[in-house]
Automatic annotation (TrEMBL):
Source organism, top-level taxon: Bacteria
Keyword Metal-binding annotated: yes
InterPro entries from the UniProt entry: GlbO/GLB3-like (IPR044203), Globin-like_sf (IPR009050), Globin/Proto (IPR012292), Globin_bac-like_CS (IPR019795), Hemoglobin_trunc (IPR001486)
CC cofactor: heme
Species name: Fictibacillus barbaricus
Alphabetized Pfam families for the sequence: Bac_globin
Name this protein carries in UniProt: Globin
Keywords: Heme, Iron, Metal-binding, Transport
Length: 128
């Protein structure tokens, strides 16, 4: 039943787009995360909207335009530590709270994102 997919519950493309906009505005104000990202986050936000759409059960927009996500490989140019994963997740949690998601939905989404975020870690905090 597609009306129960996280994609649908998030408000489909428009809901994800709004969440992602808030998320990157928080990322751009985060002193640990912002140095890793380009100044203009328009394209980054567009790709993340496409990715989260498919990650949460919606249309495979990211793969249609960019091919297989290979997210860990695409993050290898950036030194990502446990602290970055934690900061990334904190920004996402704040964005979700700002958009008043149902707590159950929020917990579910964050638990899935947590696995992906820690999977991106490629550097020890002590090596930064
Ligand atoms: C791209 C950082 C976690 C999805 C990027 C970029 C950076 C970055 C610096 C490149 C931005 C650009 O050049 O436009 C991080 C950090 C993370 C993290 C520090 C902390 C763990 C995640 C997670 C996801 C994700 C958990 C998915 C749920 C993406 C996507 C892109 C991206 C889809 C675009 C890839 C492309 O170039 O096509 N990330 N990221 N990231 N990130 Fe992350």
């Amino acid at each position: 039943d597609e009306t129960k997919s996280p994609y649908y519950l998030l408000g489909e493309r428009e809901g994800i787009q709004k969440l992602v906009t808030t998320f990157y505005s928080l990322v751009s104000q985060d002193s640990l995360l912002s140095p890793l990202f380009p100044k203009d986050l328009t394209e980054t936000a567009h790709k993340q909207t496409q990715f989260l759409s498919q990650f949460f059960g919606g249309p495979p927009l990211y793969t249609e335009e960019h091919g297989h996500p290979m997210l860990r490989a695409r993050h290898m140019p950036f030194p990502i530590t446990d602290s970055h994963a934690k900061a990334w997740l904190a920004c996402m949690e704040r964005a979700m709270t700002a958009h008043k998601l149902e707590p159950e939905l929020q917990n579910f989404l964050l638990s899935r994102l947590k696995m992906t975020a820690y999977h991106m870690v490629n550097t020890k905090d002590s090596e930064r």
